[in-house]
Amino acid sequence: HSNLHVLQLDGTDYKGFDGFAKQVADIVGDRGLDTLINNAGIALTAKLDAVTADDMVTNFNVNSVAPLMLTKALLSVLKQSAATKRKTTVVNISSLAGCITLIHKVPFGMLYPYFTSKASLNMITKCLSVDLASHGINVVAVHPGHVQTDMGGERAKITVETSVNGILNVIDKLTDDDAGKLIGYDGTVMPY
C-alpha cells in the first residue's frame, strides 16, 4: 500500500533513535504521528535461583528503556499531531505479568527479568500519561493477552488475530479518562 513505510530500528541502539525519528518525521510531514505502539519485547524467564544481573538489565533495556526512549525521540511528531486536535496516542504493550497486585496468581513461578520489566513499563506509562496530558497525548498500557506467538507458545489461549483486533478496538475507543491505565485487549481495565 502506498501509505505503508517499513523502517528498520534496533530497539536497543538508542543512538539510532534520532535518525529513526527523522525518517518518521520526513514521512508524516506536518500532520505528525497520531499513534505510536511500542510493541517490541523479550521475555527472559529466569527464576530466583537462576536470575543474573545481565538478565535483568537486558530485559529492562528492551521492555522498559527502549519504549521510553523511542517515545521521547518521537515526541515532536506526536506533539505535532496533537496540536492539530487529532486523537494522538502512545500505546505501550505491557502484560498481566507486570501487575503487582495480581502476580501471586501466576501459576508458573516468578520470572524476575520479564515481570519486573513489565511492571517498570507500567510505571513509565503512568509517568508519560501525566507528562504528556497537557499536550493532548493519551498514553496507555495494553495487555495483549496470552497470545499464540513464539513468546506465548502453543498453550496460549488466543490467536494473534484476536489480540490485534482487540488492541485496535481498545485504541479506537480510548478516551482521556483512560490515560495511564493498563487495559486488556478485551477492554478490561486491569490493576497495577
TrEMBL record:
Xref: InterPro entries: Fungal_SecMetab_SDRs (IPR051468), NAD(P)-bd_dom_sf (IPR036291), SDR_fam (IPR002347)
Any one Gene Ontology cellular component term annotated for this protein: cytoplasm
NADP listed as a keyword: yes
Organism superkingdom: Eukaryota
One protein family per Pfam: adh_short
Keyword Oxidoreductase: yes
Protein name: C-factor
